[in-house]
Every structure is written in C-alpha cells, then in structure tokens.
Amino acid sequence: MRYQESEAFKVNIPMVIVELIRTTDNGVQTTGKIYVNGDNHFVSDTLERAYKDNRKGVSCIPEGKYRCEKKLATKNIPYEHVTIIDVPNRAGIAIHKGNFYTHSRGCILLGKGYKDINNDGELDVLHSKVMFDEFMKCVPDSFILTIRGAIQKPKRHEEII
Question: Which of 4, 113, 115, 126 is the most buried (most CB within 10 A)?
C-alpha cells in the first residue's frame, strides 16, 4: 500500500480535501460550512444537531477525521448519499439532504443560507437538494472528512484588561 500511495503522489493524482468547520452551537443545533478542496471548489452551509456528548440520535458527531463513502439508497435514506464511517459508538451517520435539525439524528445536512422556515425559532438550512446534488458531483466515492470547530478569535484588548 505504501508503494501505491507514493506512486500516486509522483504522478500528481489530485487529492480531495473535505473539511467541515462548525461555527455555532446554540444547544439545539449546530451550523457551519463544508469545504471541498478549499473555498474555490465547493462551499455549502451545514446544519447538524447540537453536540451532546455524542449521544445517539440527539448529538452531532465529535470533531475529528472520518473515512467517508458514497452509498446507494437505503431504507432510511432513499437516495445516494455519503456515509461517515468509524464514528465512535455510532452507526448510520451520513451527509444527506434536509432542511431542519430534526431531519438529522446526528447526520450533516447541506444547504445554502439559513432561515426559520417552519417557525420553531431555530434557523433551517435552505436549498438543501441543490447543494447536496452539487456536493455529490464534487466528491469521489471515498474520502476523508475533517470536522473542527471555529478558529477562536483573540479577545479584544479591552476584554483582556
């Protein structure tokens, strides 16, 4: 395997970089952005459940690196989607379409923009089908997803004093 990997680098086979940067977690849901090969290739807003100690069905997954694979339709997700593999103590986690945080039991929803469309007081992600379809065109059959929180901005000088 090492030989094949080093040969791939010699012939400049492009590697796809997929990164999710979470920006807010209000205790109910988490928003963020997913980038494929940086800002210029593909960017989508994301919506997940809030982080609640990685509890099944109610929490987004922990920050980290995860192997991902495209999967054909399943009983729970009736269209091709991306499954996130080897999430500690979890199974069935995916990247898929959806507008409300309640459309996720730990999965990542894609879209463009946010608005409270169901009047529950929480922001919902818009244009999910369009952004999901674009995402599926941009990613290979398998890839590594890196999930991390927002970069901490330094406190203003007045707040430090």
Answer: 126
Residue 140 tokens read as 């290979």
Answer whether residue 7 shows pLDDT above 50.
no
User: Tokens in use for 55?
Assistant: 């509890």
Q: Is CATH 3.30.70 the right assignment for the domain spanning 14-150?
A: no
What are φ and ψ of residue 106, in 5° steps? 130, -5
CA gap 16, 21 in Å, rounded = 16
From residue 148, give the alpha-carbon distance in Å to each of 18, 50, 76, 89, 93.
11, 14, 27, 19, 17
pLDDT of residue 151: 55
H or E stretch covering 95: strand 94-96
pLDDT on residue 54 = 96
